[in-house]
Amino acid sequence: MITFILLCMTLCLQACKQSADRKESKQIAIIVSTLNNPWFVVLAESAAKKANEMGYEARIFDSQNNTALEADHFENAIASQFDAILFNCTDADGSIGNVEKAKAAGIPVFCMDREVNSVDAPTTQILSDSYSGCISIGKYFVQQLNKKGKYVELLGLVGDNNTWNRSKGFHSVVDNYPDLVMVAQQSGDFDRNKAMEVLESILQAHPDIDAVFCGNDAMAMGAYQALFVAGKADKVKVFGFDGSADVLTAIKENKIAATGMQHPVLMAETAVQYAGEYFKGKTEFPKKVPVSVELVTKANVNNYL
Fold first, then answer.
1. Any residues with CB less than 8 A from the CB of 175 and at least 6 apart, and which?
2. Which residues form the Periplasmic binding protein domain (predicted)?
3. What does 231-300 look like in DSSP terms, one character per residue?
4. For residue 81, what are the contacts with CB-CB under 8 A and spacing of at least 6?
């Protein structure tokens, strides 16, 4: 009987120690808009890798571009008492409530790449300078088209600020040239297949376009596919934004004209480092941390490959 009691006490102590060890290891939830886009896979996995290197536990949640699913992930993270949330939102306005719930529960939220339209809800927001990046693309676009021609713009998700920052940066340059005419502007939802379908439809009404400006690289690849099927891939210049591996290869192969190189690994690692500083007691962080975007063309693509 005494032996049995001692065994139970030993097992209980071991269980308590394991529970304490788990509690001491900080847990980070990484909630991203979608894992259907390779760029966001890099963002999420880079954050998880850095978190593990720093001794934290990390779990990735895929919102699948669905605000309701995103809300479920936040409820899960709050109920599971995660210590921090690294967040890539589905909607600049629609995601604010989720961030505010986490804040009310005492969980800091560090936004990566996509911002929410709130200054106070997130602890900080680490964002690509999409506007300036697309100014550079706009200038190169003008040069490549010799200041004249017809073009199409494929927008990203209409609820994402990156969509409009990129579009505004691009148009701040291109709209100064009256002989550059935009014949169509439609959303491709940052999705490769959707962009291909949208451009296929546009080409039926405007078969004589000279260029396509896309709000991200996934749409740029979709646009190229549509042009290839239509036999126009060698006549129409495609411009993207992200710096994804497949587009860098496509630039080298003269399939895509240019892209804007974002730095998902840098944004992800910075978010984890900020979370680590928060765990150590830091409470004051810059509200927005801009990360520069670099123009990638055939002339310099080897530097990035």
1. none
2. 28-282
3. T-TTTSEEE--B--HHHHHHHHTTS--EEEE--HHHHHHHHHHHHHHHHTT-----SEEEE--EEEETTT
4. 27
CB distance 161 to 115 below 8 Å: yes
CB 85 within 8 A of CB 103: no
In angstroms, the CA 70 to CA 166 distance is 24
SS3 8: helix
For residue range 190-204, list pLDDT tens digits in order. Answer: 999 999 999 999 999
pLDDT tens across 240-270, in order?
999 999 999 999 999 999 999 999 999 999 9
Q: What six digits make up the tokens of 238? A: 């495609």
C-alpha 146: how far from chain center = 32
Chain position carrying tokens 């500083």: 277
User: What is the maximal distance between C-alpha atoms in the chain?
Assistant: 94
Could you give the 3-state DSSP secondary structure of residue 153?
strand
Q: Which strands form 211-214's sheet, in the order they lie side by side? A: 180-187, 149-155, 211-214, 237-239, 258-261, 294-297
Strand 258-261 vs strand 294-297: parallel, antiparallel, or unpaired?
antiparallel
Quick check: 51 and 43 in contact, CB under 8 A?
no
Which pTM value belongs to this model?
0.84
Of the candidates 26, 80, 31, 29, the residue with the CA atom closest to the CA atom of residue 54 = 26
Q: Please state, in angstroms and rounded to a whole number, the distance separating the CA atoms of residues 26 and 5.
A: 33
